[in-house]
């Protein structure tokens, strides 16, 4: 597992320089709404997990790995673990950018990076949906699925917020859900999100293992 994770990092080490630039752009572009850090943490796995997958498919290393005496469940687990590993590396790069910006006293209001349960939930849902497709069809055939999911997420969240704002007071279902969450403590809601994220991720992993075990190269 460790060697597989290290492999995914080393094959794209130059990308980390690009990651610093990305974190700087997000810090500047979203300095007014406190989203720079969150977006950096969310987007990092999108870039690095997919780049590692594209290298594997391009160099046909997937076939080599599948022929080695490594359980396919371990190969699948590595991808699931790498999502949160790259999210942590994204957080570190964002902290570096903020440190440099503050040291140089740049006129940018950097957002404070906090790892919210909703961010963990978002990562678990997003990659919990995408990775089974990846293990079924490979990187090339699923890159458009990922593209649609990525932009659908941002526009979908915006649209959902608009729908709640517009119809929330007239919808009994939405009002019941809003009331339910409002009556719970923040700690309780956070625990609910973390548990749901773990369940979704574990279910997705089991589906991916089943798919990958039956896949032929």
Contiguous uncertain segments of 5+ residues? none
Distance between the termini: 22 Å
Beta percentage is: under 5%
| Main beta-sheet annotation | none
Q: Fraction of residues in helices?
A: over 70%
Derived from helix and strand composition plus strand pairing, the structural class reads mainly alpha
Helix count equals 8
Rg calculated over all Cα atoms: 19 Å
Average pLDDT metric = 80
- Overall 3D form: globular
Please tell me the total number of domains. Answer: 1
Order of helices and strands: HHHHHHHH
Number of β-strand runs:
0
Describe this structure in words.
By secondary structure, this protein is mainly alpha-helical. It has one domain (1-214). It contains 8 helices and no strands. The chain has helices at residues 2-10, 15-29, 36-58, 61-67, 72-103, 117-167, 172-182, 186-213. α1 (2-10) crosses α5 (72-103) and α2 (15-29) packs across α5 (72-103). The longest helix is centred in the middle third of the chain and has 51 residues, at 117-167. 27% of the residues are buried.
Keywords, please?
217 residues, mainly alpha, 8 helices
Give a topology summary.
Elements: H1 2-10, H2 15-29, H3 36-58, H4 61-67, H5 72-103, H6 117-167, H7 172-182, H8 186-213
Helix pairs in contact: 1-5, 2-3, 2-5, 3-5, 3-6, 5-6, 5-8, 6-8
